[in-house]
Amino acid sequence: MAGGLSIERVDACFGAHVHGVSIAEIDAGTFGEIRELLTEYALLVFPGQHVTLDQQNHFAARFGHLEFPAAAITNIAPDGSVLDDQSHDTVKSIRGNEGWHHDSTYMPVQAFGAVVTAEVVPPDRAPTGFADMRAAFEALDVAAQERLRAMTAKHSLYYSQGRSGYLPTQRDDGTYAMYGYHDKETPVRPLVKVHPDTGRENLLIGRHAHEIAGMESAESEAFLDELNDWACGDDRVHYHQWEVGDLVVWDNRRLMHRATEFDLTNPRRIWHTRIAGDPSTEAADNHRAVS
Fold first, then answer.
1. What is the 3-state secondary structure (H, E, C) of 8-42?
2. Phi first, then psi: what are they for 270, rounded to 5°?
3. Which of 14, 124, 151, 230 is the most buried (most CB within 10 A)?
4. What is the pLDDT of residue 101?
5. Residue 77, in any domain of the structure
6. CATH number at residue 195
7. Which domain holds residue 29?
8. Number of domains observed in the structure of the chain
9. Residue 51 CB burial class (10 angstroms; 0-12, 13-18, ≥19)
10. For 196-227, how does the pLDDT look when each residue is reduced to its tens digit (9 = 90+)?
11. 288 in a domain, yes or no?
């Protein structure tokens, strides 16, 4: 119990369901408790909130500046039809997100986290998986930890979507009209990162990571694949089974997440508000401001 909040642990080494609060009406004191719970649990699920998009964005903005306000992650087209064509750019984006990842590591500044709500949930509930990269790092032996601390890798949406076969359609000038396909220098990040709020180390890996410095491409790819597969196992993983009205917030600096495959003939719509990271702690090594 934290104040008036009721906390129910999930079936993993992180995460909790939070009851006894209306996100649309929280005061500063209650938000402070929620912020502390997020630092402790990394994943908070608030069932049955049914907030508006403005309320969702307002709640997210209490954690910090927004990288972008509520955006639909959906296979429902503007005309109401359901998209299930694997060649459609929207479907490609949905399918690509089925790989484990941290949000915005492919941008100059990695995201703090996200607030996501469910509006339309298919019969199989299209669960979202979360994996604890702090627990993964701490489960490694000392020699492996020391080796990983010395490694860096590039992070790119071009790489991850291209490798999975889900790059969007190119425009006439060869660019892509979708978020994350920027023309800035490819971000370089350490494989082990100190969490700015807890001071504890986390793995920083996922599908966007590639080209470990000093390794041949094939060796780097195999190494990261094995590390990703191992890290996202045991009690370090939890799958949230969505219900309409759920609100979920997670710490992107500690957790990876992934979508799961669902029957695309069924409509699904969730709303994702991304919270921007602090450039002083979340900027890529090669995008830090020169003092």
1. EECCCCCCEEEECCCHHHCCHHHHHHHHHHHHHHC
2. -120, 160
3. 14
4. 98
5. yes
6. 3.60.130.10
7. 6-277
8. 1
9. buried
10. 999 999 999 999 999 999 999 999 999 999 99
11. no
